[in-house]
Design brief:
20 helices, mainly alpha, two-stranded antiparallel ribbon, about 600 residues
Length: about 600
């Protein structure tokens, strides 16, 4: 479906300037007027004359000031007229308030031995969120040495684009998206998927068609009542998204494989990755209960006021060989060592290297042989836009802290573990408890614990983490990486021709040390950008820290909406006549 976005600021008409006026005159008349205005001395090179620079502009100072004011005012009015945005929750916080808030994010607070929060400490957090006072957050009880990450971040005002609370989380059909409730079949499906991602970390993507563990994962996930990914699950769409073009060809985006120049330094996309557990000497973390409990408390130090036992944060074992991402473990690491929008800066460098032919058809400089864009519709402008969408993180932080306070997969796995060992009883949907993945994760953790010499070498039902400290110290939904990916890739799709084929596509071999030619269907810029969105989003699930629907889909669509609204505002500021066109994640094409 094609739609045209007509929401933009109206630019006041400028009065004719000297340049415009002269442009309408005949050659002789224009020359005569020019001589009269400037004088003969500068034109004839008379030594006694003094050449002076003349400000030449299509507007006047007063009119320019008014235009700038109108642009800012219109942008603010457009946002104000959208009104307030709804922020519904799943109700778990109220539902389980008298049961130690076991369905919410509680990391770094004091916890009992079941990993359930001290309710008084959690209420102190709620109080601080209600006041927004820095010192109230300082006074929230702390169970260990880890600090919260920016609980005030969602309260900042944005001077460009939407305000922090001015979006609603929606699904691909535009319906309100509420994070699945703790006891729901949707939560069960999300938990089963992330367990499978963990135990399949070391299976090369190139081997998915033949590997027996992958076959088990596919069969098990097809039994889930409310799985939110592509269905039926197959070896070709396992752990993937159905965004336009994202299921075409290999799972890894070409923008993570292609070489690029950074300040003249040639980089080829290979990266440092953790050593594999299966087939290597690698390890994961939080695979035994005491370490998991330490992580919930924020890793207590010696002499802590609660008398908690101390356990040190572990150290990751890295592969000595740099590799192109060829497995869940590799892609999870790639998605977790970026610098907010560095990956999209890299994609921009690759795309700009294709020349003007790769630009969107609405860009007037695509076919111009006389002019090139730079501060407008050029390289500097693109990087400005990519850099500006970091404000999208403020939207994410508002929903994380001020709305949902949604628990992370790490905490959910502790609930599953305690249920399985009969230490506690939680309303976990039976799709988790009957999944064959629990046997796989138990055996996987036993292997890791034997290798590490911890936990008595016994297995657990905990979610193995790639990060030694486990998940970040802020709530789960939506995912910050997801909103950045959605926003930045939306900007890139608006800037470049999505239908253009990516030249020389490659695919990593099973070792990640060789790139082979891709011989399948054509890979397009739009499809590979959607795939990059997936890689940098679902890669965080592969790392063990987020959820498919609650965090990633919601974050991608939130980022897309923020980017579109920023593009609307930007459109009104350009002197050129042009349009932005892009295909949204739901397949709808819009023109701004």
């Amino acid at each position: 479906m094609n739609t045209t976005d007509s929401q933009s600021s109206t630019k006041p008409t400028a009065s004719p300037s000297r340049r415009k006026f002269l442009g309408h005159m005949g050659g002789a008349t224009a020359a005569t007027l020019a001589v009269g205005a400037i004088g003969l001395e500068p034109l004839l090179g008379v030594k006694s004359s003094i050449a002076e620079a003349v400000e030449i502009s299509p507007t006047t100072c007063d009119l320019r000031v008014q235009q700038a004011f109108d642009n800012r005012t219109n942008a603010a009015l457009n946002e104000k007229n959208l009104g307030c945005f709804a922020h519904p929750t799943n109700g778990d916080e109220e539902r389980y308030a008298n049961k130690n808030y076991f369905a919410n994010f509680t990391k770094t607070l004091p916890h009992n031995n079941l990993g359930e929060v001290d309710p008084v400490a959690y209420q102190a957090l709620l109080h601080a969120l209600s006041t927004g006072d820095f010192m109230d957050f300082e006074n929230v009880p702390q169970g260990g040495t880890q600090a919260y990450l920016n609980p005030m971040g969602g309260l900042a005002f944005n001077m460009e684009g939407p305000d922090s609370p001015a979006t609603s989380l929606v699904d691909l059909n535009g319906n309100p998206l509420v994070p699945p409730a703790f006891a729901s079949a949707e939560m069960a499906a999300a938990m089963v998927e992330i367990y499978w991602e963990a135990v399949c970390r070391d299976v090369p993507f190139a081997n998915y068609g033949t590997d027996p563990l992958i076959a088990k994962a596919v069969a098990d996930m097809n039994n889930l009542m409310r799985f939110q990914g592509p269905k039926p699950v197959t070896v070709n769409n396992l752990f993937r998204y159905s965004y336009p073009g994202a299921l075409v060809g290999p799972i890894v985006s070409q923008f993570l494989l292609k070489p690029f120049l950074f300040d003249g330094v040639l980089l080829d996309g290979r990266t440092r990755v953790p050593a594999p557990v299966n087939g290597g000497n690698g390890i994961d973390f939080l695979t035994f209960y005491d370490e998991w409990l330490c992580a919930q408390r924020g890793f207590p130090a010696a002499g802590n006021p609660f008398g908690y036992p101390v356990c040190p944060i572990g150290t990751q074992v890295f592969d000595p060989v740099a590799r192109w991402p060829r497995s869940v473990r590799d892609l999870g690491q790639v998605a977790s060592q970026d610098a907010i929008y560095s990956t999209y800066f890299r994609a921009a460098l690759i795309l700009l290297g294709l020349g003007n032919a790769a630009l969107d058809n609405g860009n007037p400089y695509k076919t111009s042989t006389r002019q090139g864009g730079f501060s407008t519709l050029g390289f500097a402008d693109l990087l400005r836009l990519i850099g500006s969408v970091h404000k999208a993180e403020r939207h994410t932080w508002y929903d994380k802290w001020n709305v949902h306070r949604y628990l992370r997969p790490e905490a959910m796995s502790g609930r599953v573990h305690n249920q399985m060992v009969k230490a506690a009883n939680y309303p976990i949907h039976p799709d988790v408890m009957k999944s064959s993945v629990l046997t796989e994760v138990f055996n996987y953790n036993a292997l890791v614990n034997q290798r590490r010499g911890v936990g008595g070498g016994q297995g657990t039902f905990l979610l193995p983490q790639l990060n030694p400290a486990g998940v970040p110290t802020h709530p789960s939904a939506p995912a910050g990486h997801a909103v950045s990916a959605g926003a930045c890739c939306t900007i890139l799709k608006a800037w470049f021709d999505e239908n253009l084929a990516v030249p020389g596509p490659k695919v990593p071999d099973a070792t990640g040390t060789v790139l082979n030619d891709h011989t399948g269907p054509t890979l397009t810029i739009g499809g590979e950008l959607n795939k990059l969105t997936h890689n940098m989003t679902e890669g965080r699930n592969m790392f063990g820290v987020h959820w498919r629907q609650a965090d990633n889909l919601s974050g991608n669509l939130q980022g897309e909406e923020i980017a579109i609204r920023i593009l609307r505002e930007a459109k009104a500021t350009y002197p050129e006549s042009f349009s932005f066109s892009l295909t949204k994640f739901n397949g709808t094409t819009i023109t701004i």
